[in-house]
Amino acid sequence: MASKDALFKPVTHCIFDMDGLLLNTEALYLKVFNDILEPYGKRFTWAHKAETMGFQSAQIVHYLVEKFELPMSDDQMHQLLQKKYSETFPTAQLLPGVERLLRHLKTHRIPIALGTSSSVESYNLKTSHLQEIFDLFDQKVMGSSDPEVKRGKPQPDIFYVVARRFPDNPEPSKCLVFEDSPNGVEAGLNAGMQTVMVPDPELPRNLTDRATLVIDTLENFKPERFGLPKFQ
């Protein structure tokens, strides 16, 4: 019987999502949304979270106003979110295994990129205290601010843009996407890329079925399974 590793194809480039994969920000988003919804007697649950993970900023703003029938405009919601984000996001922390994997890939000269749906402003709030780690990336694409990213995840736009901006412009099949969300996994697959999913424990397991590989934490990722240099 063939090894499961035989199902994985060798890659040369790695693309990482940020929220919930590199940083513990999904829990921070939940706090922000529920702080806003609580006065209206409503709650943002993990079912809502699964539906919206990977959304661009404008998408989540509209979702909150429409889904919860809030008495405010999208612009008012946007302003409220920005205030809450500025108070909350600077507390973001790296998740287990992130620094080890990024430093390992960088040491072995594997091209690595960030492909996040966050805006530049949101990215800066989340990472200003973690720049030593985020400076390891060869390039960064912030989907909510980048004019070339026309559509948010699960559409493949952001991963196409990232691949094109690598100096050697690799084929999508040579890129490995790391994601935590169903929308992100779908975006990677739609771009013709293999996807490693690191789902939150709260995410229903049936929403992980589409990923090429599912692991509990980046600490458990074995690079050699995709033809990348092995940890020593």
UniProtKB/TrEMBL annotation:
<dbReference type="InterPro" id="IPR006439">
    <property type="entry name" value="HAD-SF_hydro_IA"/>
</dbReference>
<dbReference type="GO" id="GO:1990738">
    <property type="term" value="F:pseudouridine 5'-phosphatase activity"/>
</dbReference>
<dbReference type="Pfam" id="PF13419">
    <property type="entry name" value="HAD_2"/>
</dbReference>
<dbReference type="InterPro" id="IPR023198">
    <property type="entry name" value="PGP-like_dom2"/>
</dbReference>
<keyword id="KW-0479">Metal-binding</keyword>
<keyword id="KW-0378">Hydrolase</keyword>
<dbReference type="InterPro" id="IPR036412">
    <property type="entry name" value="HAD-like_sf"/>
</dbReference>
<dbReference type="GO" id="GO:0046872">
    <property type="term" value="F:metal ion binding"/>
</dbReference>
<keyword id="KW-0460">Magnesium</keyword>
<dbReference type="InterPro" id="IPR041492">
    <property type="entry name" value="HAD_2"/>
</dbReference>
<dbReference type="InterPro" id="IPR023214">
    <property type="entry name" value="HAD_sf"/>
</dbReference>
<comment type="similarity">
    <text>Belongs to the HAD-like hydrolase superfamily. CbbY/CbbZ/Gph/YieH family.</text>
</comment>
<protein>
    <recommendedName>
        <fullName>pseudouridine 5'-phosphatase</fullName>
        <ecNumber>3.1.3.96</ecNumber>
    </recommendedName>
</protein>
